[in-house]
Amino acid sequence: MSELLPCPTCNRLISEQAEACPKCGEPLQEGWIEDYRKAKQKSRGRYFGAFIIAILLLPALARLGNKKPNYIAPSETVNEQVGKVFRASEYGEGWPFSNYRSVEGNCFYRKFGNTNRPLVIIRIGEENYGMNGAAMGVGGYPDARKFIPRDPEFGVYDQKLYPTYGKIFEATKELCDPPINITN
C-alpha cells in the first residue's frame, strides 16, 4: 500500500505512486518524495530546536514576570518620609498592637505600570508592614493584620480591635492626600 503525501504545488494528498496530481495536474518530478521527506525532517528539527530553546528560556522568562517593580527599598523610603505616630495611650483597650506602645504610619506613592498607587504602610517595631493591597502586592510588604488577634472559633479578626486598626489605616492614608504625580 502506498503512502499519501501532499502535492508540492496544491498540498492535496496524493499517492506516492502518482505521476501527476489529480487536482492541479502538476506533473510530479523524479525525487519529489525524497525532497518532501527531507523537508519534513528538516522542519521537525526546527520545531524540536525551537522547543528546546523555549524549555531553556522558560525559567528566565518566569523570573522576569515575577520581578518586583523598580522602587526604593522600604526601609529607605519610610525613614525619609514624615509619618504619623500612633500611641497605645490614645486608644486604650482598642489598641491592636498589644506588644508595642506606638507605631508609625506612612503613605507614599509608587508607580506601577502607568498608575501611581498609594502604599499605606505602618512601622511596627523595626519592620514595615502593608496596610493595603498595593503595599502588600506592589510594595511587597507583609500584612500588618497579623498583629490583630483572631477569634479562635470563627477565625475573624477580633472585632474590638479591628475598628481601631481601621482608624489608624484611614489616618495613615490621609498622608497620601492629595495624590501626587511622580515619574518613574
Q: Which runs of at least 5 residues are low in confidence (pLDDT < 50)?
A: 67-80
Helix content: 25-40%
Count of domains: 2
Overall pLDDT, averaged? 77
Radius of gyration: 33 Å
> Structural class of the helices, strands and pairings?
alpha+beta
Which sequence of strands runs across the widest sheet?
Answer: 3-4-5-6
Tally of strands: 6
Distance separating the two termini: 68 Å
Kindly describe this structure.
The protein has 2 domains: 4-65, no CATH class; 74-176, no CATH class. Helix content is 34%, strand content 19%. It contains 5 helices and 6 strands. Strands 3-4-5-6 form a 4-stranded antiparallel sheet. A two-stranded antiparallel ribbon has the order 1-2. The radius of gyration is 33 Å and the shape is rod-shaped.
Summarize this entry quickly.
The protein has helices spanning 32-65, 74-80, 88-91, 133-137, 162-173, and strands at residues 4-6, 13-15, 84-87, 102-112, 115-124, 127-130.
What are the key terms here?
two-stranded antiparallel sheet; 4-stranded antiparallel sheet; alpha+beta
Task: Detail the topology: elements first, then pairings.
Layout: E1 4-6, E2 13-15, H1 32-65, H2 74-80, E3 84-87, H3 88-91, E4 102-112, E5 115-124, E6 127-130, H4 133-137, H5 162-173
Antiparallel strand pairs: 1-2, 3-4, 4-5, 5-6
